[in-house]
Design goal:
The chain is mainly alpha-helical. It has two domains: 70 residues, no CATH class; 100 residues, no CATH class. The protein is built from nine helices and no strands. Helix 5 packs across helix 7.
């Protein structure tokens, strides 16, 4: 069947059947084990091999790079940051937006240097297994780890572009 489909058709199929499913639930995936992340990454690798008709013994990184696909951990970070951006500009549901707080909005932190850097307050948690996986914690940590030039983007389109560029560079620049 692979031989009868064009590369564009295979890419469309992989995007429809795999990428959108992982992206849909990626904010829930923040905090999953390394073993599960590797299993998801192997699905993306298999999809890239299918699109390019390569063997399993060939390196996958150049293929993922050519497809402009982020690796799974960066993909999760991308979705979390986009959702956090929506919360900050007021286009996210209120139940999510109410969980994120800017350091400039907190009275005791208003005069600190961190208040001018558009960072988010990371809530303290009691349980490292459940509390650290909450949206308010993971989104704030991921947001604060972004470069300030990305966080201060004036529009959603510019934010997404800058974010994908930053994550793409961090994903494929390290060995």
């Amino acid at each position: 069947m692979r031989r009868s489909l064009t590369r564009t058709t295979l890419l469309t199929l992989m995007h429809a059947l795999l990428v959108t499913k992982v992206d849909y639930c990626s904010s829930v995936l923040s905090g999953i084990s390394l073993q599960l992340l590797q299993r998801l990454q192997s699905l993306f690798s298999a999809a890239a091999r299918l699109v390019f008709s390569t063997r399993k013994s060939e390196h996958i990184t150049p293929l993922l790079h050519e497809l402009l696909w982020l690796k799974v951990p960066e993909r999760i970070q991308f979705r979390l940051c986009v959702l956090a951006y929506h919360c900050l500009i007021g286009t996210a549901p209120s139940y999510l937006a109410e969980t994120l707080h800017s350091t400039a909005d907190v009275g005791s932190r208003r005069h600190l240097r961190s208040a001018s850097k558009s960072t988010l307050v990371i809530p303290t948690t009691r349980h490292t297994t459940l509390g650290d996986q909450a949206f308010s914690v993971t989104a704030a940590r991921t947001w604060n780890a972004l470069p300030s030039s990305v966080r201060s983007a004036p529009s959603l389109l510019q934010f997404r572009r800058g974010l994908k560029t930053a994550l793409f560079q961090s994903s494929y620049s390290s060995p």
